Amino acid sequence: MDRPKTLLIVYHSGSGRTGALAEAVRRGASHEDVETVEVRFKTAFEAGPQDLLDADGVIFGTPENFGYMSGALKDFFDRTFYVVEGQIKNPPYAIFVCAGNDGTGALTAIRRIVRGFPMNEVQEAVIARGDVTDEDLEKAEALGAALAFGMDAGVY
User: What is the pLDDT of residues 120-155, one digit of tens each?
Assistant: First the structure.
């Protein structure tokens, strides 16, 4: 049997709101019907280059800070980009943002960086504006499930 595919969830949360979204993403990605995908769940400070090299798919999560991604997620990109450059083979990825504003600055910045790895965005980003609602958590869970099921089925 081939090794299981690995879905890496990398996120940062300061207030806990992005953490709640991250847990929902993990719940969806860890659905009992997903058979061939192993979920690795790490904070931006815990994750490193080897995690990216081992990943067959990635989901990035961040709060919106000053109209940008969190410094912790930017630090993750800074610590990993050149180390893995040329070794990443266009895995699928998705993004979730907990935004105090509209979240577009964080999305734009992440997309610009991730394009250089390169990776392929395969799901619509989830943006929770203001307080995280049950609907936001459902969307985050669906995001995790969609990427994991797609990887499980060989779509990505």
Answer: 999 999 999 999 999 999 999 999 999 999 999 999
Q: How confident is the model at residue 3 (pLDDT cuts 50, 70, 90)?
A: confident
User: Pseudo-torsion of CA 110, 32, 4, 38, nearest 10°?
Assistant: 40
How far from 78 is each of 4, 6, 62, 100, 101, CA to CA, in Å? 28, 22, 15, 24, 25
Q: Which amino acid would we find at residue 131?
A: D
Please tell me the distance from the alpha carbon of residue 147 to that of residue 142, in angstroms, as a whole number. Answer: 9
3-state secondary structure 35-75: CCEEEEEEECCCCCHHHHHHCCEEEEEEECECCECCHHHHH
